[in-house]
Amino acid sequence: MPSPPALTAREICQVLRELALGTRSLGPSSHRVATADHDWQVLLEVDGWSLALVNQGQTLSHCERCRAPDGRVETLDAWPRYGTDPVKLLSTWEHEQLQRLLQAL
Questions:
Q1: Domain segments of the chain as ranges
Q2: DUF7693 domain: from which residue to which, for each copy (predicted)?
Q3: Cα separation, 74 vs 54, whole angstroms
């Protein structure tokens, strides 16, 4: 039986993009968790997706891990090259919109 295809950074970025555009919304269990002085992690539930994003200082930094509704999981280790993290694929405007949304949690 073939294994399911890997969860790609582009798939995850599309979920984040739709969240920034307002075509998807956060689920009730989405919340922030303080991790260090000015850093925090955001655990998001979005239409069956589960994402952990890291905010360093006042900037959304990267995606730590993601689980798709079909059970596929990827972590930070899946995006070793610069620019392939799902957060890095967002436009400047999308990144800012998502940052504002997450700060409001």
A1: 9-103
A2: 7-103
A3: 15
The pLDDT value given to residue 101: 87
51 burial (CB, 10 Å; 0-12 / 13-18 / 19+) is: buried
Residue 22's pLDDT is 92
Q: Is-above-0.90 flag for pTM? A: no
pLDDT of residue 93: 96
Tokens for 51?
Answer: 């994402």
Flag the least confident range among 5-19, 41-55, 74-88. 74-88
Q: Which residues have a Cβ under 8 Å from the Cβ of 18 and sit 6 or more positions away?
A: 24
CA distance 87 to 69: 19
- The answer on pLDDT for 38 being more than 90 is no
Residue 95 CB-half CA count within 13 A: 16
Please count the other Cβ atoms lying within 10 Å of the Cβ belonging to residue 43.
16
Structure tokens at 85: 């993290």
Among residues 74, 103, 80, the alpha carbon closest in space to that of 4 is found at 74
